[in-house]
Structures are given as structure tokens and as C-alpha cells.
Amino acid sequence: MALTLHLAGTPAADELLAANPLALLIGMLLDQQIPMEVAFTGPKKLDDRLGGLDVHTIAEMDPEAFLALCATPPAVHRFPGSMGKRIQDLCVYLVEHYDGRTEAIWTEGDPDGKQVLKRLKALPGYGDQKARIFLALLGKQIGVQLPGWREAAGAYGDEGSRRSIADVVDDKTLAEVREFKKAAKAAAKAGKGS
Fold this sequence. Notes:
63% of the residues lie in helices and 0% in strands. By secondary structure, it is mainly α.
């Protein structure tokens, strides 16, 4: 059975995310300072413009040409320059450390959740939170349920949570995740004000 995702909210973009681990990794990279579903449509824009989403192609492209491609309307991100550089840095890293095999991050050497979290945190543009969310996404929606993945993902790995893109499976859960984020932001703001 083919994997079905509902991260971008558009069938073509979601199909690419389900079929191409690099697309998923780039979508997660782009998931900051823009709506989640907009971030996860970024890989489809690149796929269309490049005639395929290939780690080696992106890694080897002239940086200025790649940034121009990212900035072409509609831009891949609201900050196409800085995020375009991060995408290219990510692809270079994947070529240098995993021979361009994105899925090797979670398959090479029979890793557990803790090891995969460490590998994700080593990626350009991935901090602790982004790495935990991606690990939860792998476990909850991609079927990559390594030993200890829920613990390594922290609260993002909790069954039934609505904290992040890892929990978005339809429009209803997207709205629930948005509500959780809005409440968390309001609570953080209230905490700073007191």
C-alpha cells in the first residue's frame, strides 16, 4: 500500500513528500516562520523547477543559480536566500556523509531513535526541536519506528498529541495543531509578561 501524507494539503506535493525522503527532509527544514503546509509545498516547487528533486543536482548547482531558483515566484520560502542556502548545505552534507542517500540517516547501521536524533541534529538547519519533530514524523506517519523513537522524540512522539506537523493527517488535525501552537505561544507570552 502506498504511503499517504497530508502535510502540504495539495495532492501533488503530498505525493512527492510520501515518495521522496529528500523532499520530506527539505519540507521539515523549511518549516519555520511560514505556515506548515506552505513549508511542505517547497520541495514540490523545487521538483518542478529542477525537473526532479535530486540531492546531487542541488549539491552541485552553482549557489547563485540555486538561490535564484529558490527566489523565483512563488518563492520556496519567504526568506528564499537564507533558506535556499540551507537547502543546498543540507544536500552537500547528505552527499558527503550519506552518499546522497537521505534514508540512510534512519537506516544505516541499524540505529535506534537516540542515534537517529543525533544524526538529524547534525544536519545543517536542524536544531534539537526540528530533529525531534522529524523523528516523530518518521515514527508516526512514515512507519520508521525504531527502538526508543518515541522517547527520543520527546513530547512530539506522544501518542495522540497535536503538537507538530508529525500529527497532521487531515484538515481537522491541522486545525488542532494550529490551536495547540497558538495556545503555547499565548502561554509563553503570558509567562514573559509576568
